[in-house]
């Protein structure tokens, strides 16, 4: 059963003067997604449970952590599990969370129990830390709804972006990037699933907006690097802008997420820093500055991580 810790029992991961990366060292975490809510930054991750030497993913749940300063993190435990979705059978792959009209929605790829391949479920919660419950009782997207690629994992890695006019878009896919509008209730598709032609797209789309420019970042190639494109709207047209972060030494995935927090910009990603193993990954974060032209620079992975950035009025 999912355990939701009361505030008094919350576990604080104090980075203090030590290295800030990886963020979590007591379990393996992967596939970051980020929500800035109020004065806190919430980090959602998958959990790698593969044993040493295993050569496949073993992932059953999504976890949530938060920070007031980018150095000290609070562990809020399990946000949702494969079992949250009664129609799913395995594989808690890369999820995303968004806040919309006071509720929190978790978009989660999982293997469907009866329809072959991956599907995307939607969880909902009144708090950013969950627990999330199944908002629909059925999958939002199933593998038989898309035909661009023959594999069963082409409908993974949902990333949801809500534009300033309130319209929500969900991007997802492996090898072929797709997007679809969501209805205002956030739990139904609104219209056709469309594809996006993107240079060397592998997976892990992430959309964010800054100064009127839409940034579409993604994992590119295999082993993956982080690359990005920009456009004038959430549906493009997209102009390729290059590589942001080089591939990992061991793990073939990298899965990024971006956030601005307390006046600074951050990129989250995962690597093999703790385990030196492909399927035992750890989430890390780096601070960066946009160029004067809005470009994202090449960002190096560090052990030190970002400097403390305490948000006024936020208490760890
Ligand atoms: O963690 C499982 C899969 O690996 C994710 O869905 C991809 O983004 C890659 O990180």
Automatic annotation (TrEMBL):
Chain positions of site Important for catalytic activity, responsible for pKa modulation of the active site Glu and correct orientation of both the proton donor and substrate: 157
Gene3D superfamilies per UniProt: Glycosyl hydrolase domain, family 43
Keyword Transmembrane helix among UniProt keywords: no
Organism domain of life: Bacteria
SUPFAM superfamilies associated with the record: Arabinanase/levansucrase/invertase
Keywords: Carbohydrate metabolism, Glycosidase, Hydrolase, Polysaccharide degradation, Signal, Xylan degradation
GO BP, one annotated term: xylan catabolic process
InterPro entries according to UniProt: Glyco_hydro_43, Glyco_hydro_beta-prop_sf, Glycosyl_Hydrlase_43_Enz
UniProt GO MF annotations: hydrolase activity, hydrolyzing O-glycosyl compounds
UniProt signal peptide: 1-19
Active-site residues from the entry: 31 (proton acceptor), 203 (proton donor)
UniProt xrefs under PANTHER family: ENDO-1,4-BETA-XYLANASE, PUTATIVE (AFU_ORTHOLOGUE AFUA_2G04480)-RELATED
Similarity comment text for this entry: Belongs to the glycosyl hydrolase 43 family.
Record's protein name: Xylosidase/arabinosidase
């Amino acid at each position: 059963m999912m355990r939701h810790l009361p505030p008094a029992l919350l576990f604080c991961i104090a980075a203090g003067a030590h290295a800030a990366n990886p963020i979590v060292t007591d379990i393996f975490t992967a596939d970051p997604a980020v929500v800035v809510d109020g004065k806190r930054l919430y980090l959602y991750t998958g959990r790698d449970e593969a044993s040493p030497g295993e050569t496949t993913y073993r992932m059953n749940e999504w976890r949530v952590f938060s920070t007031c300063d980018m150095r000290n993190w609070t562990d809020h435990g399990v946000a949702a599990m494969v079992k949250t979705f009664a129609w799913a059978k395995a594989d808690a792959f890369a999820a995303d969370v968004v806040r919309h009209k006071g509720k929190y929605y978790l978009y989660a790829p999982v293997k469907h129990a009866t329809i072959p391949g991956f599907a995307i479920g939607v969880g909902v919660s009144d708090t950013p830390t969950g627990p999330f419950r199944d908002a629909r009782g059925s999958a939002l997207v199933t593998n038989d709804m898309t035909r661009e690629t023959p594999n069963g994992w082409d409908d993974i890695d949902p990333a949801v972006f809500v534009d300033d006019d309130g319209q929500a878009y969900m991007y997802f896919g492996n090898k072929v990037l797709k997007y679809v509008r969501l209805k205002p209730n956030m739990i139904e598709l609104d219209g056709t699933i469309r594809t996006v032609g993107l240079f060397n797209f592998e997976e892990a789309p992430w959309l964010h907006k800054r100064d009127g420019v839409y940034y579409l970042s993604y994992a590119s190639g295999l082993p993956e690097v982080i690359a990005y494109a920009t456009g004038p709207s959430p549906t493009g047209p997209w102009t390729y802008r290059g590589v942001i972060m080089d591939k990992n030494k061991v793990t073939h995935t990298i899965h990024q997420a971006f956030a601005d927090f307390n006046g600074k910009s951050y990129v989250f990603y995962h690597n093999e820093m703790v385990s030196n193993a492909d399927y035992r990954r750890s989430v890390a974060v780096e601070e960066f500055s946009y160029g004067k032209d809005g470009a994202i620079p090449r960002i190096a992975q560090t052990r030190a991580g970002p400097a403390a950035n305490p948000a006024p009025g936020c208490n760890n």
